[in-house]
Amino acid sequence: MTQIGNKQFNGKNGKCWINDKRYMNVYNLTVTITNNYEEIPDPRDGHFGKVQVPNGYSIEGSLTLRRDGSEIDFLKELADATKNNLIPEISIVAKMERNDGSKAVRYRYDEVTFDSYDLQKFEQDSATTELELSFKAATFEEI
Fold it and tell me: What domain of life (predicted)?
């Protein structure tokens, strides 16, 4: 008999790739898609309210990783791009799957930009150092 808990999605089986490199130390990822609307007067006769007309969407997210050294090259690429006023080509692939592995959901986010990032951060009395990266993306697709 299959237990109901095995059919649920949870973060334990989440995986993340940045520019096709798997990061084992990513332990939190959130991506939010916000629909944008333009509000206009209702064009129908006898209706005096307002209606919303779709006007695109925006993608924002954040990922948190525990620093283990695997992120150094990625941060160096971001820092070099910042110094030279460039936007590096970055994509993120995220995967969630059920506890029993029977179903998975993958999305790819392209044209990713990071608004800010901690190049260096440490705490004297902390066992782990975390790096949180807030990002925006231009497109997404289920893969």
Answer: Bacteria
Q: How many structural domains is the chain composed of?
A: 1
> Is residue 132 included in any domain, yes or no?
yes
Between CA 16 and CA 35 the distance in angstroms is: 24
Residue 5: pLDDT band by 50, 70, 90 thresholds? Answer: low
Measured between its terminal Cα atoms, the distance across the chain in Å is 31
Run of H or E including 89: none
Give strand ranges (E) for 1-143.
15-18, 21-22, 26-41, 50-66, 92-97, 104-110, 113-116, 130-137, 139-142
pLDDT tens per residue across span 58-86:
999 999 988 888 888 899 999 999 999 99
Domain holding 88, by residue range, is: 9-142
Distance CA 136, CA 57 (A): 11
pLDDT band at 6 (very low <50, low <70, confident <90, very high): low
Enumerate the H helices of 17-65 as residue ranges. none
Cβ atoms of residues 59 and 92 within 8 Å:
no
